[in-house]
Amino acid sequence: MKFFVDTADVDEIRDLADTGLLDGVTTNPTLIAKAGRDFKEVVAEICAIVDGPVSAEVAATEADAMISEGRTLAQIAGNVTIKVPLTWDGLKACRTLTQEGTMVNVTLCFNANQALLAAKAGATFISPFIGRLDDIGLDGMELISEIRIIYDNYDDLTTQVLAASIRSQNHVKLSALAGADVATVPPGVLRGLVKHPLTDKGLNAFLADWKSTGQTIS
Ligand code: E4P
Predict the structure, then answer these.
(1) Can you tell me the mean pLDDT for 136-148?
(2) What is the DSSP letter of 124?
(3) How sure is the predictor about 147, in pLDDT bands with cuts at 50, 70 and 90?
(4) Long-range contacts of 88-96 (CB under 8 A, 24+ apart)
(5) What is the C-alpha separation between 112 and 115, in angstroms, rounded?
(6) FRET pair for 217, CA 20 to 30 Å: which of 50, 58, 157, 194?
(7) SS3 for 189?
(8) What's the CA-to-centroid distance between 196 and ligand 1, angstroms?
(9) What is the pLDDT of residues 10-53, one digit of tens each?
């Protein structure tokens, strides 16, 4: 499974990219607003740091305008992935941009039929929002499983399942178990994946015992 980080904070991205474990980045208008910086400038900086797909979302709601914005954003770098919302206009824009060779991430997916349409429109990625479904009392993870089954039923549906709106380490594990191709994870949750109290406890004990031997490795 690939790991994307879900942020527009360039310093965070640079730091996480240093681990060598980062496969891509997703942004959205809320994250860009939070960064408080020029959108295209931020996307260009991220693309210079990360080789993998970097999602940048259009602001238009009508297909022709989405396509035009998508083309503008795609010129920033070869790894820009255009994010379009899951609407009829978004799907039309997805079809056109995909045919032009641009990667497209269809976002705001909340049911399996929407995911089926996105795949038929040629999306590179479909983004089902797990956390926001959980927020309204539904099971976000069930949607990941359903989409996985549907896509696996048809050889011509090659869209990658990008588990989004992830809120916890458990969401990451469950996404992997459900067969998501990618998880886009907030920086804090990504950093938390490495943590376990028994790892810390075990390491402290090993270090103390090693010190007691008086040896060095050289
Ligand atoms: C995905 O691409 C979205 O940017 C993101 O995962 C949304 O997460 P949220 O529901 O926590 O805002």
Answers:
(1) 98
(2) S
(3) very high
(4) 88/63, 89/61, 89/62, 89/63, 90/63, 90/66, 91/117, 91/118, 91/121, 92/63, 92/121, 93/58, 93/63, 93/66, 93/67, 94/118, 94/121, 94/122, 94/123, 95/121, 95/122, 96/63, 96/67
(5) 5
(6) 194
(7) helix
(8) 25
(9) 999 999 999 999 999 999 999 999 999 999 999 999 999 999 99
Give 101's DSSP letter. T
Residue 43 and residue 176: Cα distance in Å, rounded?
Answer: 27
* All domains of the chain in start order, with CATH: 2-213 (3.20.20.70)
Mutate to test the pocket of ligand 1, among 13, 28, 30, 134 (most ligand atoms within 8 A of CB): 28
Q: What is the pLDDT of residues 149-174, one digit of tens each?
A: 999 999 999 999 999 999 999 999 99
Half-sphere exposure of 66 (CA within 13 A, CB side): 26
CA distance 40 to 32: 10
**Model pTM?**
0.96
- The single-letter code of the amino acid at 58 is V
34 has catalytic annotation: no
Residue nearest to atom 5 of ligand 1 (CA): 165
Instruction: Of 13, 91, 4, give the one whose Cα is nearest residue 55.
Output: 4
Structure tokens at 185: 């994870």
